[in-house]
Amino acid sequence: MRRLIIDAHLDLAMNAIEWNRDLAQPLDAIRNRELHMPDKPDRGKGTVCLPELRKGRVGLVVATQLARVNRFGSSQTGWNSPQQAWAMTQAQLTWYREMELIGEMTQVTNLLQLERHLELWNDGEIPDNDKPIGYILSLEGADSLVKMDYLHRAYDEGLRAVGLSHFGPGRYADGTKTAGAIHPSGIELMKAMEDLNMILDITHLTDRGFEQALECYQGPIWASHHNVRHIVPNQRQLSDEQIKRLIGRDAVIGGMLDCWAMDVRFIDTVSDPWQLDIRLDHLIDHWDHICQLAGNTNHIAIGSDLDGIFGTEQSPWDMNSIADLQLFEDLLLKRGYCNEDIDRIFHGNWLRFLRKALK
Ligand SMILES: [Zn+2]
After folding, report:
1. What is the pTM for the complete model shown?
2. For residue 225, how far is its CA from the centre of ligand 1 (angstroms)?
């Protein structure tokens, strides 16, 4: 049996609701339906659907709800009110519930459910095709929480991880492509999250926000989809100092497969991964760097971000779908990682983290 993979960042519901993708269908069918659709640059180039997750033994994912609120005049896209953004996240949640109803997915909110789900995926008697994809619900950017008490409503629906910001200025914290901070409301939100022992996702915080988060937040912290600034020198990635601080908190960092975050030469909508020869192997350079800083392989894992508003046009050319995450086994062996390391990267590090966080 091949190894189980945990991917800590997939925007599944966003693809279902905003891209109108029926992720229960085979990948070819989804691509074929989009062949002549001009509305988005990644049409017909998606890499993620539930059958491909099963094919790649990606049996557990962290799946997002995602809806931004935009200030008047901002260049980012988003909703014009927190109520609209909340409504969008509720549509996304309803899609996850519908997938549960037809046995495609199952929600994991506590340790018991986690262990049961792992037992199922470790059961070689049951074909993987008959197993539901487990998901831990995460909110990428907190804009949609209309007021503080919405966090409790979301927690009751199984939300277990929150990132305060996404791109641009946010309601609780400013995010990627700004130099802003976590707002007083964001500090208050972190206190409420701490009481619930929720996971704080530091991905998409600014450098100042990162500092504030590590200072204020005493609960579990991870970086769900994040690469290394030493290799790709922009603020979206983690500096060595930040990586060391995350290691000090026993955090885990999910490596991502957006070419823009893998190779400094890549320019959105201009570059071609094949021309620049960006392969899956590039991500191992990022992982290597973190391992050198840590002195071990305990803090790296997968947070692919595949189909996070890009498709094959912006992911490594030697992969076709998310099932190809399994190719990392051979690539890692070639780079000198041992079997135990590969287990840790594929699932072990996220599991260590989750077992502690969901207790
Ligand atoms: Zn993201």
Report:
1. 0.98
2. 7
